[in-house]
Amino acid sequence: YEGSICCETPAPTIIVTDQPTRLPTVNPIINPTQMPTSNPSPKPTALNICSECTNIPPPLFVSEGRDCDSKPDLLLIRCTEEPWWVTNRYCERSCYNAGLGYEGSICCETPAPTIIVTDQPTRLPTVNPIINPTQMPTSNPSPKPTALNICSECTNIPPPLFVSEGRDCDSKPDLLLIRCTEEPWWVTNRYCERSCYNAGLGYEGSICC
Question: What separation in angstroms does the CA of 163 have from each of 37, 115, 160?
Fold first, then answer.
């Protein structure tokens, strides 16, 4: 009609249609999700701050040498339906990881140490970190260091008997086991200093370069 300028969105009608008028929400959401999630978020605490959860097994598990992860199927019952289990919060972390966390439990990623000795203990940083540490522990312990752990050029002078027989310090390694540690005259003269050091029987204060 004369003077009519219709907007794209039609005005609401009194007749029910299969295409109702779209009206904006009162409080629009910023960046809404496209579809609802199938798994709802776990119940948060007041501030949703994680904590170090324990993972202490019940006494029966301890007596049988089992830990909280040895029988996952039991957690389905114990973590939710056993009052004595829930009251003591046994296997708190394992229950949480299984999606059966106790009320108020939000466990941080790094588990707290358990009371049972495990072959994979929790890794905690050292108080004084080491610069350039070794990747794996060595099978042979390091010799006793000096105050400043500074190496020196060690001698390897054989005793007179070895010289007279034309032998050197490495000709009879089995003798070093006795000579380097139990022969006072040998130790006093520091015979075969390097060979003793290489055999892990270094003299006190010797750190050979």
Answer: 85, 60, 5
